[in-house]
Amino acid sequence: MRSISLFLAITLLLSVLAGCGTANPSSATTAGSTASASTATTTVATTTEPVTTPSTTTEAPPITEPTPPTPEGTGVLVSLTLTVADNPTLAEDIAFAVDEDARTATLALDYQTYADLATLSDAHLTSVAEGGEVSFSAQTKGGGVDLTAGAVCTVTDENGWVKNYKLSIDRTVYQLPIVNITLEGGVAVDAIDRNLTTSMTFSLDCSAWEGYESIGNVSGTIRGRGNSTWKWDKKPYKIKLDEKESLLGLDDNRDWILLANYADKSLIRNTLAYEMGRVLDNLVWSPHSYPVDLFVNGEYRGVYALGEHMEVASGRVDIEEGSLEPDTDYLLEIGGMAPTGDVNGVHYFHTDGRLVRFATFKSPDFEEITQEQKDFITDYFQKAEDAIKKGEGYEEYIDVDSFVDWIILHELSYNLDSCFRRSCFLVKEKGGKIRMGPIWDFDLAFGNFSRDNKNYDNWVTIGSNEEDAYVQYNWCTYLLRDGAFCARLAERWEEVRDRLLSVAGDTIDTYGAMLDGGSQQANFEVWKIWDIRAGYQSKWCSAENTYEKQLQYLKNFLQKRAAWMDNAIPKLPT
After folding, report:
1. What DSSP line would sit under 479-538, residue for residue?
2. Could you give phi then psi for residue 296, rounded to 5 degrees?
3. What is the Cα 273 distance to its own chain's centre?
4. Pairing between β-strand 359-363 and β-strand 215-224 as defined by DSSP bridges
5. Cα–Cα distance between 169 and 96 in angstroms, integer?
6. Cα separation of 178 and 217, whole Å?
7. What is the structure's pLDDT at 337?
8. Which of 50, 82, 149, 234 has its CA 20 to 30 A from that of 18?
9. pLDDT (tens digit, 9 = 90+) per residue, 347-399?
10. What is the pTM of this model?
């Protein structure tokens, strides 16, 4: 009995313990009943769908610590300079402004402190740094730095850590192209000679003229040019490049001129006349001349006109050269003789009636022309003059339409200076007739000459037989007495009048606005001539003492002169 009771007690105890495990599994686990927990898990597994284990397992990426940033270098850029010693086109050393906080170095350039584009594209820099070595990005083949390409100056300290400074240019550029000339050997601008050439480097910066190509440093020579204009303070120049270049979109050539336009306070009279000349397409050639800002040895010299040189060449006076035949192509200039040394019959000739005087040989020039050619061309001119004076048969010798166009331009512009006196060019073509042109020299035209008739109510090309007359009797004197010629003149005037005035107005507005963007102001800071008569300027034109007034004077002059011609042409012949 006692053993049965003991068995029942043990059985009861186990039942109680089993009930407690089912009601609170966590208590069973805590108690460490591994067998009971395993049994329970197995029971659940047998009552559910079997679990498939993947054949491969994906490992989690390793956890890495972020790389700490490299410390900025401790070196400091102290100074950065463009020196004349390393950049010979400069007038003076130019220092950058270094801003340590902004990590920038800025080069400030204006027309008093100037560096040309070619130098900035290959700048040789002098630097000073504390606690580091300096290097630059945007290195050039010439060993410099291209400052126009977003260059960076890097200072590297002894730990290899770096500090970068962005290089920038704060550059004043007005609306005109910039010509920069550097004279070799330290020659000063005042030492440029009219008869001797000086070696130079030349560059053209067209960054302000969209669509035109800049020209980097090219070599060549420069000398003075002009007669009376060479005596004035602001000197004109002729340049010859070693290789042909296209400047301002014009035909490739080595020879170019820089006109000073000292007496022309509008600074655009030649440009204006040449643009009008392109309307008159019977003329031999109308050159191009565009205003530019000129620097010599890094010093601003004012507004000049960069233009095509008067010469026989493709795209200019395009005639035959080198022929020994009498009837070849000729280019002659009336009044082109040298003040001293030139000899009648050698360098120039006169017609018997002296309506053509001092006609100089330009092509062939006096060194190349044969005596047979001299005899041919002087005889041809004499026959033309005789026919013109008679008013009969002159059409056999002269191209009438070119004479009509030439007279229209010179009358409308009232250009005394090149009316069969000087700077008056004519071409005699092989087998052909005498044609007027190229046109040249209009800085004293459009009411700007002290010898003008102030009322501008007379024919300028007719001239006078008075001894002291600036324009003497010439071929135009007799052509304007001929009814047939005057009829063609009237017809052509009606055809081109409005176009001439339209082109003139557009030219004045376009270039006047460009110049008024800073260049004319800079020019008259160098050449302080507003309160004086410059060169042979007329008193009444000089009285217009602001740039705005000068441009308006040009417009008013053209309108008044055209109105006078409207009334005077129907009254021809004289």
Report:
1. HTT-HHHHHHHHHHHHHHHHHHHHHHHHHHHHHHHHHTTTHHHHHHHHS--TTS--TT--
2. -125, 125
3. 20
4. unpaired
5. 9
6. 13
7. 86
8. 50
9. 999 999 999 999 999 999 999 999 999 999 999 999 999 999 999 999 999 99
10. 0.85
